[in-house]
Each structure stands twice: as structure tokens, then as C-alpha cells.
């Protein structure tokens, strides 16, 4: 681990908001919005892996897409290498896209079924023009080597590969443009556990080899524990807790994080553990609860939680929590 | 591989075509009216009618007549018209090119207009443009061609006088019938293209393409449209069948001497060999087009195995 002072911030997300309008029943009702991501701020250091965890619908994938401007954010700023990328025009943005890449969850859906692997890799290089034309063939073979696929793969179509192999192709495609940051949106969730481990180890190896920075979006805490340096927990479009992996897994301070962690299965049937069961469902993000968004399900909620929205407070070294009573849970 | 597939598909068409002859032959028997009576004319004696029946072999058992006919068809003999004793095949060979020409222009119109409208709608879904295009498409599906054809004729030929009313002499004569015949198909293709495009645009590989920094135009045409085309091709193929059926109406409205009109006239005259020959050729065309669509489909969709 590098010393804190040496770390350089690669990506800084500042008060990011992503609202989606929803259809209302009546013409006269005011327009309603799903506040998928509601005013969140965080940053990513160069070369680290920050994981975003949370239940379905908490806004973790939306955050990833908003950073990439695949959906145009409603508000906020996204600084990449010091530059607010939301200010860039289309042309500048296209140029920058070489630095920001993405790997999606479903390896069956993320590759165009009508392109061979060669075309897929070649297109990526051609757009960003990272490799001169005569060198592209050797570069493609090199990329396949990095992700552990044979050279024969080039002339085949995505459907001829297994899930794990396709995800390797997705990774090779992302690497083709020499990115700095790769957003892995549930990159291993669709794979078998044994394949998950292979892909995670591959990602780690490549991160080391090419000094990549990962924003790793996942709902699977065991995966997150394996790959992350730091972890950010989201609930209903808000950041609930951010900390180093060890701090977060060893001493979670937010009741929601504690509940999440208590749900990880432990491979020891004799071990007795306290399972925190949450009541009810996640409330609708159209009309999120007032105050602390978690208060409707929090076993410790008080009147203050209903009225006042907690700020993200630093409780330990680089350990931020948004709970009024974080001190109590230490 | 592809050759084997085509041969196998061709073999499969034989029972289909034989089935068509069977159905048409027996349906024609159910239609009231005796060809011999019609041929003999009003007030003919029973003996005359009986003589005509014997001459045409209509007094033999139905199944004998049918198998006789079937054997002749395999030899390429479609029989002679009951009306004017001309070989049916000669008449069909004159009429078929006209109908094919009409169908060809209609399908071109269906594809171009339908796909363009579908793409325009899909690029900005739920926008005003999208709604307008889709409402027009709904009208296109709903309006019956006999009414639509007459309205077009009234507007373009009678009021504006820019296109000929009827007939089949020049390229100008083709426009109105082709529009009339293709309108319903174009509307269906437009809706299909739109929904198929919207489906594809949601896919992660489109997001990936955007994330790579590809231009929106290239994303739409190269990545989205090519994948969205697969179901559209099937629909276009099926539309061709509807189109052949539609020629019957459109050729009658615009007084075009094509195969469709020939069949209608023959039905009216109970000219059995003519009806059978016409329907048989029309269904052959349909079967061949479907085969062609299947081949095209496999060409476009690399995932479909050739078996």
C-alpha cells in the first residue's frame, strides 16, 4: 500500500445526480422523478479498486453509467484527471472515451453477435486510433494473450464462446484502447463461481500489469471482498458508508452495512452468528423517505432520523459514514 | 452446408405444393355452379350439358379427376381453359410477369418506407415524430386496400391529374398500385423495425459501442440496425404472401391484367383448370420467396445452425 500522501486522485465525483422522469397517471399531476442517484460525492485514486455495493435499484449501475455519460447526468460534476468531463462537447468526449472503459455484466449481451472477435477488437482500436493500422494484428494477438484466449479466437463469433470466454473478450476489448479507468458493472455476476474467481484474478493481474483503476460495481460481497481496496455502500441513491475494505468489513459503522455484511454466508456451520434481518422492502426511489433514507427499515431509527438527513462524516481514517448515531455502533 | 440446406428446403416444398392443389381442387367443387351449365349457355338442353360434361371428363369420380390433373401438372401440363380452350400455362406466363413486377415494386416500397419510418421512430422513441409516424403506420395497417386504392386514384389521378387512373403501360402506371399494395406491409415493417431497434438499442453492446466513442450514426446503422434487421426480414417475407393475395384486389381496382385478376375472372367463370393453375403458380412463388427469406435469414443471423 502506498502512503496516503502519494495517492493521486484519478476520478472525482462531485454531487452527482441522476433523475429519470417517470410517467404519471394524470396529465395534471406534476412530473415525478426516480432519484436513482441523489447527490453523491466520492473519488477514486489512481491504481486502486473502489467497489460500489448495494441492493438492486440502489443506483450503483446508474452511477457507473452517469460517469461514462452513457446516460446524461441531471446534475453534479465528474472530474477525470482534473477535468470536468460533463463540460466536454461530443467530440472531446469521444476522444476521452479511450481512457474510460466499461465491462458489463452479461457477456451474452455486451458483444455484438454479428461481429467476429477481430472486428470487435479492431473497431475499438480504429475509433480511438491508439494503434497504427499495420500493428493492429499483432496488438490483437497480444490482447488475446493477456486475457488467455487462443489466436484462433479472432475469426470466430461471440456465440461460439462460453460465458467466461466472452467476458475475457469483453476485457480484451476494453483493454484495446489503453484505458486508465475501467468500470466493471457486475462484471462477474453472470458467471459460475469457479469462473468468477478466474476472471477476478485476471482483472487483478491486468490491473497490476497496466496500472489500471477499477470502479467495481457489484452486489456480491464476497466478490467485493476479494477484489477491492476500498468499498462504498449505497442505499436508495445515497452513499451510506465509504471505507478501506478492511475497516468496512471488520468494523462497519452504518446499520445498513452491518445488515448487509451479516448476510454473507460463513463456511462454518457450527459458528453461531448474529443475522440482522431487515424489515420490509426498499422504499420507492420516486418518493424516498425523509431524513435518513434508511430510517424505515433501520432497527435503531429515532425521530431525528425521520426528520434530519445525516451528512457523510469521517469517523476513522478515511472512513466515512452517514448516520446520526455512528458513534454508537463502533 | 448451405447447398444441402437449400436442397432440403426445396424437398420440403413438394408436399406443400401438392397440398395446395388438393385444397384448391376440392374447394372449387364446393363452390355452387356447374362449369358445364355455364359453358353451354342459357337455355341449353340437358343433352348438350351432359355432352360437355363427358367431353371435359367432369362426369368421372372426383378423385380420378384430381389424380389425373396432378399427374398432368407433374408433366408440366396445366390443362386448357374451359372458357377458350387455350393452354392455361400460356395464359399464366403472360400474366405472371405483370404481377411479379407489381409485387416487386410494392415490396421495394414496403421495405424502403417501412424501415425508414421505423428507424426514424426508434431513434427518438416516444417523441412527437415517433407518435406521428406510428399513427400513420396504424392507419396504413387499418385502411383496406380497396378503399385506399380508390382514394389514391381519386386524389392523384382525378383531382391532381398527375398519375394515370388505371392500366399498365408505363412506370407511372406502377406507382399507385404499388403504393396501394405496399402500404399495409410498409406499416407493419415500420412497427416491427421500431420495436426491434428499440430492443437492440437497449443491449449492452450498444452501450459498449457508445463507451468506445463511436459516432451515433455508426452505432445506429452498423451495430443496431444490422441486428434489428433479423426479425424484420421474416416479416418482409411473410408480407410477400399477403402481397400476392393483395394483387387480386389491387389488379381489379386498377384494371391490371395480372395473375390475380386472371384468377378472379376464372373463379367467376368456374374455369377450374385456370383457377388451379393460377393458384398453384402463386403458391409456388410464395414458397420460393419463403425459401429465399430463410436463406437470407441464416445469412444475416450467424447463430442459426443450418439444420
TrEMBL record, chain A:
One protein family per Pfam: oligo_HPY
Domain ABC transporter: 22-261
Protein name in UniProt: Peptide ABC transporter ATP-binding protein
SUPFAM superfamilies tied to this protein: P-loop containing nucleoside triphosphate hydrolases
Keyword ATP-binding: yes
PANTHER family per UniProt: D,D-DIPEPTIDE TRANSPORT ATP-BINDING PROTEIN DDPF-RELATED (PTHR43776:SF7), TRANSPORT ATP-BINDING PROTEIN (PTHR43776)
Transmembrane segments: none
Protein encoded by which gene: oppF_2
GO molecular function (one): ATP binding
Keywords in alphabetical order: ATP-binding, Nucleotide-binding, Transport
Family: Belongs to the ABC transporter superfamily.
Organism expressing this protein natively: Neobacillus kokaensis
Keyword Ion transport: no
NCBIfam families, per database record: oligo_HPY, PRK11308.1
From TrEMBL, chain B:
Keyword Membrane annotated: yes
Protein name: Nickel import system permease protein NikB
Transmembrane intervals: 102-123, 135-158, 170-190, 228-254, 274-297
Family the UniProt entry places it in: Belongs to the binding-protein-dependent transport system permease family. OppBC subfamily.
UniProt organism field: Neobacillus kokaensis
Listed NCBIfam families: Opp2B
Sequence ranges assigned to domain ABC transmembrane type-1 in this UniProt record: 96-297
Keywords for the protein's UniProt record, in alphabetical order: Cell membrane, Ion transport, Membrane, Nickel, Nickel transport, Transmembrane, Transmembrane helix, Transport
Gene3D superfamilies per the UniProt record, alphabetical: MetI-like
Subunit annotation: The complex is composed of two ATP-binding proteins (NikD and NikE), two transmembrane proteins (NikB and NikC) and a solute-binding protein (NikA).
Upper classification of the organism: Bacteria, Bacillati, Bacillota, Bacilli, Bacillales
Places the protein is found: Cell membrane
UniProt topology in membrane: Multi-pass membrane protein
InterPro entries: BPD_transp_1_N, MetI-like, MetI-like_sf, Opp2B
SUPFAM superfamilies the UniProt entry points to: MetI-like
